Amino acid sequence: MGSIALGAGLAVLTGAGAGIGIGIATSKAADAIARQPEAKGDINKALLLGCALAEATAIYGFVIAILIIFLLK
Known about the structure:
The protein has 73 residues and is an all-alpha fold. The protein contains 3 helices and no strands.
């Protein structure tokens, strides 16, 4: 049972990486918009796409953790 909990905990850690990545991307986008306000639309599109992909990895990690907990009992 301990190894199952450890595996699930490691799978959920993808959320921390996604959070850090989204935070860094948002700060870089804010800097880019401050430097070039006329490119705001293009920057926002790229930012939202990147954030969606990063958030998807966090969700995949959460789903894997749930599968580990409930299917490996």
